Amino acid sequence: MPITKNSVVAFAYTLTEDDGEVIDSAGVQEPLVYLHGYGQLIAGMENALGGREAGDRFSITLPPEEAYGVYDENLSGALPRSAFHGVDEVEVGMQFQMEFPGGLRAVTVSAVDARHVTVDGNHPLAGETLHFDIEVVSIRAASQDEIEHRHAHGPGGAH
What we know:
Layout: E1 7-16, E2 22-26, E3 32-35, H1 43-49, E4 57-62, E5 76-80, E6 95-100, E7 103-112, E8 116-120, E9 130-141, H2 144-149
Antiparallel strand pairs: 1-2, 1-3, 1-9, 4-9, 5-8, 6-7, 7-8
């Protein structure tokens, strides 16, 4: 059964950067499960999985445009510490939701000094070329509930 829209797909993967450093992985014992055709994965990965079958093993390299996008300097900037009222300690690595044109976006604190907090609204992997080694573990047709809810359910249809 090839992967098509409304397929529930389980796949194992290893994600590395250009230097070979492993960033993330999911093994065959605990694969990533998603509903194909609903934009739940980065575009390049979902496109590469389309048409594949259980047991297929392959590698892909995704440029930033097909992964988490190019780095956007406009999503990074310094804010006065007063913008973080109610937060006792602001530390590098903390994440907050902030209002941007188009809605809320997660931002990560990248620097803190006595007067300012620098935040970055880019995905941590924005601007990176990503390398995936993928193994398709299983494919099945989605249930009507999964299609209506637009995501895969767990074993027995549980959320």
